[in-house]
């Protein structure tokens, strides 16, 4: 298994949110999938489609209905949360183009792929990622994720939508740069664990 020098932000978020003593299973999963598997990818793709088309949640409802049987229920929960949370929150904003970005965190490249970006009435642009996992985000994982988005898109407001809890978190009025030393240290540890020859218990 090759050493991974680049990971998705989803992978970083999951790592930050996993207690140190339970990270072995996650590391093995990252290595087995080359750091790229995301259970929620179909629903995230539907989220991007929704924001670029009807903006009413129909794309997520369709994705849930057409999902594999073992995913249909969980996707349906997220689709309903999207309609109740995201649709009204950005009902009056204007969609703007957004492309994936990469940002260097310590010695690792992190790939950031937002679901959408919208411009508010005050001219500020919010770049938005969604979180779909049942496990709640701990404070450091949540704010660390916002900080990575903020570093990838420095002129925009980072937003993370926690759909299972119908919660919207933003980098606005936060001094997230204070997290950089901790983020660098965590990512350095992750890169070490992903290096060939390392034993992961």
Could you explain how this protein is built, in words?
The structure is a single chain. By secondary structure, this protein is α/β, with parallel strands linked by helices. It has a domain at 6-36 and 94-193. Helices cover 43% and strands 18% of the residues. It has 7 helices and 8 strands; from the N terminus they run βαααααβββββαββα. It has helices at 9-16, 23-32, 41-52, 58-65, 69-89, 139-152, 180-193; strands at 6-8, 94-95, 101-105, 108-112, 116-119, 125-131, 157-162, 167-170. The strands form 2 sheets. Strands 2-5-6-7-8 form a 5-stranded mixed β-sheet. A 3-stranded mixed β-sheet has the order 1-4-3. Strand 3 and strand 4 (108-112) form a beta hairpin. Helix 1 (9-16) runs antiparallel to helix 6, helix 3 (41-52) packs antiparallel against helix 4 and helix 4 (58-65) runs antiparallel to helix 5. The longest helix has 21 residues, at 69-89. The chain is globular. The protein starts with 5 loop residues before the first strand and ends in an 8-residue tail after the last helix.
């Amino acid at each position: 298994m090759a050493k991974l020098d680049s990971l998705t932000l989803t992978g970083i978020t999951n790592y930050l949110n996993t207690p140190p003593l339970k990270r072995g299973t996650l590391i093995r999963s990252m290595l087995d999938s080359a750091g790229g598997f995301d259970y929620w990818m179909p629903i995230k793709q539907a989220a991007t489609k929704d924001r670029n088309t009807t903006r009413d949640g129909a794309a997520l409802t369709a994705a849930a209905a057409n999902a594999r049987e073992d995913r249909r229920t969980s996707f349906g929960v997220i689709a309903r949360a999207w309609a109740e949370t995201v649709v009204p929150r950005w009902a009056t904003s204007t969609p703007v183009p957004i492309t994936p970005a990469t940002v260097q965190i310590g010695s690792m490249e992190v790939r950031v792929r937002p679901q959408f970006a919208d411009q508010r009435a005050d001219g500020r642009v919010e770049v938005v990622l969604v979180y779909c996992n049942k496990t709640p985000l701990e404070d450091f994982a949540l704010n660390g994720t916002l900080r990575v988005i903020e570093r990838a898109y420095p002129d925009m407001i980072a937003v993370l939508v926690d759909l299972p809890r119908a919660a919207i978190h933003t980098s606005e009025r936060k001094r997230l740069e204070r997290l950089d030393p901790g983020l660098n240290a965590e990512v350095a540890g992750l890169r070490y664990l992903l290096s060939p020859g390392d034993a992961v218990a």
